């Protein structure tokens, strides 16, 4: 809709003001590029932000809350029907070499394969920088506290509580954990097979896969009483 309107507007300018058309097209192209770079999907005016969900995925140097640290964070906002409203930047958080060198073998292999380890070495973003940016991002789209969502997101929340308390203070105490729904579906509807995950173990792509999985459960299992789950 936006693109079609933009093309019509450009055509009118070309017909009515040929001397100014190149400048106008350049300006509108710049605007489109800026809109794309922000990764924001503008909600409808009637949208109720209290129904939003704040999706978060972290990559860490391990799962031990006492010694391991956050190295990547992404955040995405959906409405209550899982339509994407906005995406944050994918933030790579710097950690010193001795931390990365002491990761367990799984993390060394996985984060090395995806290029995350090297990106962490080169990053200049601190945990505080990342927290401040994510707080601003969430408050922009969720003025009231709404639940945290994700897959096995209780693990992410432990690290957020410890290292980014200002961020978790913006959120409701409830969480939406897709992994819990997966476990119930396996027991109650074993014939229902959720979509296969790629499990890239990169923050933003993992969020998108979690949303895709929850959408599957929404359309397959969470049906009106007179319909029941899809068989």
From TrEMBL:
- What residue stretches are annotated with the Exonuclease domain? 52-223
Pfam family name, one? RNase_T
Q: Which residues form the signal peptide?
A: 1-16
Family (UniProt)? Belongs to the oligoribonuclease family.
Q: Which UniProt keywords apply?
A: Exonuclease, Hydrolase, Nuclease, Signal
Q: What is the recorded function of this protein according to its Swiss-Prot or TrEMBL entry?
A: 3'-to-5'exoribonuclease that preferentially degrades DNA and RNA oligonucleotides composed of only two nucleotides. Binds and degrades longer oligonucleotides with a lower affinity. Plays dual roles in mitochondria, scavenging nanoRNAs (small RNA oligonucleotides of <5 nucleotides) that are produced by the degradosome and clearing short RNAs that are generated by RNA processing. Essential for correct initiation of mitochondrial transcription, degrading mitochondrial RNA dinucleotides to prevent RNA-primed transcription at non-canonical sites in the mitochondrial genome.
NCBIfam families reported for this sequence: PRK05359.1
Tell me what this protein is called: Oligoribonuclease, mitochondrial
* Quaternary structure (record): Homodimer. Homotetramer.
A cellular component term from Gene Ontology for this protein is: mitochondrion
Write out the GO MF terms. Answer: 3'-5'-RNA exonuclease activity; nucleic acid binding
User: What organism, scientifically named, is this protein from?
Assistant: Phallusia mammillata
Q: Which SUPFAM superfamilies match?
A: Ribonuclease H-like
